[in-house]
Amino acid sequence: MVSVGSADRYLPDTVQQAVKILVVGAFGVGKTTLVGSVSEIEPLRTEEVMTEASVGVDDAAGLDTKRTTTVAMDFGRITLNSRLVLYLFGAPGQRRFWELWDGLAEGALGVLVIVDTRRLEDSFDVLEQLELRGLPFAVAVNQFPDSEEYTAEELRGALDLLPRTPVVMCDARERGPSVDALISLVEYVSSDDAVRVKESA
Ligand SMILES: Nc1nc2c(ncn2[C@@H]2O[C@H](COP(=O)(O)OP(=O)(O)OP(=O)(O)O)[C@@H](O)[C@H]2O)c(=O)[nH]1
Ligand SMILES: [Mg+2]
């Protein structure tokens, strides 16, 4: 998490636009980690310790250090440049939380979808839900140490993405690449391509 002084809690006077971004992805892909890495304010988290009840429901394979899961949402803020601030809303990706998305997605400019290539199939449902809702999105690939390396084009094929959908490699624990993923999303949704996606949905 970025350490913040009290001065950073307040938005600069130069900010002209505040936009809402949704961060989604399957269980344990790194949503809470990414929001925490980029947020300039202490992120709001709703973590609960995972219990026996999640065994066989949420697949934590490859997530040895994971002890908690998000039960409602993550929230963070990042000032991308002197004029633009993003409010990040992280939403759990499991099917049982999909109803939450409708409220959280209201008024959102776009969605950053985080995927873990070790469990790519877990992301199919999430992408399908976004397409159904007509939400413009970019894909951030969270690289874990034992992730195989794929090219963006290979992943685009495997995830059946449109040629114009951004696919960005990142490490959710690192601020720089996580911010770059958000910038790709904002650039994409600000372009005509994304508008077309929205209109055709
Ligand atoms: N090695 C590595 N570990 C990561 C990375 N990102 C997250 N983790 C770890 O992976 C686990 C999952 O991260 P979370 O941020 O909790 O994932 P999440 O998507 O918010 O999970 P849910 O809210 O439960 O769906 C945590 O134990 C993190 O410490 C990464 O880029 N590399
Ligand atoms: Mg989480």
TrEMBL record:
<dbReference type="GO" id="GO:0016787">
    <property type="term" value="F:hydrolase activity"/>
</dbReference>
<keyword id="KW-0378">Hydrolase</keyword>
<dbReference type="InterPro" id="IPR004130">
    <property type="entry name" value="Gpn"/>
</dbReference>
<dbReference type="InterPro" id="IPR052705">
    <property type="entry name" value="Gliding_Motility_GTPase"/>
</dbReference>
<protein>
    <submittedName>
        <fullName>ATP/GTP-binding protein</fullName>
    </submittedName>
</protein>
<dbReference type="Pfam" id="PF03029">
    <property type="entry name" value="ATP_bind_1"/>
</dbReference>
<dbReference type="GO" id="GO:0005525">
    <property type="term" value="F:GTP binding"/>
</dbReference>
<keyword id="KW-0342">GTP-binding</keyword>
<comment type="similarity">
    <text>Belongs to the GPN-loop GTPase family.</text>
</comment>
<keyword id="KW-0547">Nucleotide-binding</keyword>
<dbReference type="InterPro" id="IPR027417">
    <property type="entry name" value="P-loop_NTPase"/>
</dbReference>
